């Protein structure tokens, strides 16, 4: 049983966290103080008794990881940082102001924050990825995730619960603040912690139900979680939203608002305090396990051979895995189609099967990169759309992840529109700080896969299902932001800009037009973000006519990327792209029906001239 002096200290610390949450939101005039107040006791005990973290060295590999999945409770997190002595009271009261590190929801602008949160249902899936990294690194750190009860309605939470349970991630603990009230009223299950326990238990989790305002029960539960083996733990803590202030305690309509009378609330909570918490540091000398590395030997393919770019991706990733021990691969249960299985066979310890759970696939990649791994996550391009919110938030987190989408465009053929990635280029271009690549042949694919390893931010490479001719020599370098001019003459009357499968159609169209006495240039714009603006500007100013052609929707893809680069110069730009809803047909029939094949390109040039 915890001594009375410790219980008194924890109660004082929790009260201070509530006071500071109220004060920060009051100063900002907005925020979520009541959601912070419900979890104050839980976090007071975690910080004082169980967290292992060196605030002077956030990069210490032995540090525990704390993720606020309920990111709107940021006043509580910032109040904890103040109690730990790493931010001042003055900075605490800069909450939500322009230029402040203390944003409305936490981001890695603060060195102790691993990932941006605030889009609910994401913290636990990312925590699964960090816990996976801990197992890979053979380090004893723990991953603590504070969840709200409202976000347990998100499907991504249960993708995470199933994966963590199946993998037995004993280093992962979810702490659920069951305060009964969501934004607009009561949650589905209210205070029925048993309803949540049955669900987590079904996925193989160790479940503990407690009073979330009893420091003794909280301490026992956190200790129990630390000592549990072979399975993750969820602590389901019954709490009261707005705890400690009569005006808002357990009352509807107080979510996401500063308190009306913060002075009275602070007085009711016992006034400001100056309690400090000394967070225990991890044991010194821990070093993460890393795999060995050999020399780089990318696959090479002879010019003229027909090879699918997805095949080259698999071979290149396996070669990269041999050259770099920090590369890991994740699959969405399609490794035989994306060809990620090539990596899995050569590096089984660094291959993670995430099954058909695309949100968890991306979230695990984000979690792994928190610990310095270089994740490549692959599935069909169409199915990455399901994980777009995770990709968007990865951009907010400034996370370094590499995504590969196969089976893109109408060129997949008979499978039809449900399997066709036709929105992926637009989706990925909009992500903050992203890189978007679309190679047209096997050697180019291999080179770009290697280039991606050291890119910052979210990078995306699109691969093609069918075999395409190799047009580049083995070993040729392709820089991000570059392009290749494949056809050019002083007499060019137009320039065709293509990427991926349409490069081959553009070359065939150019050859046919040349035979008619109509010379045209062809640019392989393999880097769609960033684009090679200099080459595009030169083409726009010399020929004045650009035809973009892409196996993608007309909105937001290659054509729009070209327009962004040259629109101020005023060239004529014709965009050929997929506008109708495809059906089932052969790949060549699909390209013809979408009017993006060689005949359609040649026809567009003739009409333009």
TrEMBL record:
Residues annotated as domain Transketolase-like pyrimidine-binding: 307-470
Documented EC number(s): 2.2.1.1
Keyword terms: Calcium, Magnesium, Metal-binding, Thiamine pyrophosphate, Transferase
Cofactors named for this entry: Ca(2+); thiamine diphosphate; Mg(2+); Mn(2+)
InterPro entries: THDP-binding (IPR029061), Transketo_C/PFOR_II (IPR009014), Transketolase-like (IPR051424), Transketolase-like_Pyr-bd (IPR005475), Transketolase_BS (IPR020826), Transketolase_C (IPR033248), Transketolase_N (IPR005474)
Keyword Transferase recorded: yes
EC class (word): transferase
GO molecular function (one): magnesium ion binding
Domain of life: Bacteria
Pfam families assigned to the protein according to its UniProt record, in alphabetical order: Transket_pyr, Transketolase_C, Transketolase_N
One term under GO cellular component: cytoplasm
Coiled coil spans: none
Assembly and interaction partners: Homodimer.
Family: Belongs to the transketolase family.
Descriptive protein name: Transketolase
Origin species: Nonomuraea thailandensis
């Amino acid at each position: 049983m915890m001594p009375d002096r410790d219980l008194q200290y924890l109660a004082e610390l929790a009260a201070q966290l509530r006071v500071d949450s109220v004060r920060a939101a009051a100063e900002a005039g907005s925020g979520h103080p009541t959601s912070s107040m419900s979890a104050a006791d839980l976090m007071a005990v975690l910080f004082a008794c169980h967290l292992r973290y060196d605030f002077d060295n956030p990069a210490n590999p032995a540090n525990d990881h704390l993720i606020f999945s309920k990111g709107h409770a940021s006043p509580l997190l910032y109040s904890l940082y103040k109690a730990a002595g790493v931010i001042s009271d003055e900075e605490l009261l800069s909450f939500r102001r322009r230029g402040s590190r203390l944003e409305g929801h936490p981001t890695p602008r603060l060195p102790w924050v691993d990932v941006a949160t605030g889009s609910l249902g994401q913290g636990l899936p990312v925590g699964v990825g960090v816990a996976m990294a801990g197992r890979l690194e053979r380090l004893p750190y723990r991953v603590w995730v504070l969840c709200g009860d409202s976000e347990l309605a998100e499907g991504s939470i249960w993708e995470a619960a199933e994966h963590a349970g199946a993998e037995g991630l004993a280093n992962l603990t979810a702490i659920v603040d069951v305060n009964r009230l969501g934004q607009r009223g009561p949650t589905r299950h209210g205070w029925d912690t048993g309803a949540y326990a049955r669900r987590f238990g079904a996925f193989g989790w160790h479940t503990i139900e407690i009073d979330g305002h009893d420091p003794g029960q909280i301490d026992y539960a956190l200790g129990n979680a630390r000592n549990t083996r072979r399975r993750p733990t969820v602590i389901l803590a019954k709490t009261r939203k707005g705890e400690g202030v009569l005006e808002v305690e357990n009352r509807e309509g107080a979510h996401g608002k500063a308190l009306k009378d913060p002075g009275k609330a602070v007085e009711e909570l016992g006034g400001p305090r100056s309690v400090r918490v000394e967070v225990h540091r991890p044991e010194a000398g821990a070093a993460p396990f890393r795999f060995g590395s050999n020399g780089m030997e990318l696959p090479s393919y002879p010019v003229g051979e027909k090879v699918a770019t997805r095949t080259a991706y698999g071979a290149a990733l396996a070669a990269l895995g041999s050259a770099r021990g920090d590369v890991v691969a994740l699959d969405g249960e399609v490794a035989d189609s994306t060809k990620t299985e090539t990596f899995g066979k050569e590096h089984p310890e660094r291959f993670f099967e995430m099954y058909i759970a695309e949100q968890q696939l991306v979230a695990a990649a984000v979690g792994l990169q928190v610990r310095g791994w270089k994740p490549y996550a692959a599935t069909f391009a169409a199915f990455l759309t399901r994980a777009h919110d995770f990709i968007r938030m990865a951009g907010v987190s400034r996370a370094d992840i590499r995504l590969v989408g196969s089976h893109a465009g109408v060129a997949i053929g008979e499978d039809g529109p449900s399997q066709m990635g036709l929105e992926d280029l637009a989706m990925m271009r909009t992500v903050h700080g992203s890189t978007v690549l679309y190679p047209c042949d096997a050697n180019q694919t291999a080179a770009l896969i290697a280039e991606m390893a050291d890119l910052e931010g979210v990078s995306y490479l699109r691969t093609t299902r069918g075999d395409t001719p190799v047009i580049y020599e083995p070993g040729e370098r392709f820089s991000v932001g570059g392009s290749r001019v494949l056809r050019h003459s002083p007499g060019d009357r137009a320039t065709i800009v293509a990427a991926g499968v349409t490069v081959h159609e553009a070359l065939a169209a150019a050859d046919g037009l040349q035979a008619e006495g109509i010379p045209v240039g062809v640019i392989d714009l393999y880097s769609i973000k960033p684009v090679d603006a200099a080459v595009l500007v030169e083409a726009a100013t010399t020929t004045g006519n650009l035809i973009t052609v892409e196996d993608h929707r007309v909105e937001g893809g290659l054509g729009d990327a070209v327009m962004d680069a040259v629109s101020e110069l005023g060239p004529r730009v014709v965009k050929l792209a997929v506008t109708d809803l495809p059906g089932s047909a052969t790949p060549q029939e699909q390209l013809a029906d979408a009017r993006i094949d060689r005949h359609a390109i040649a026809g567009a040039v003739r009409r333009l001239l």
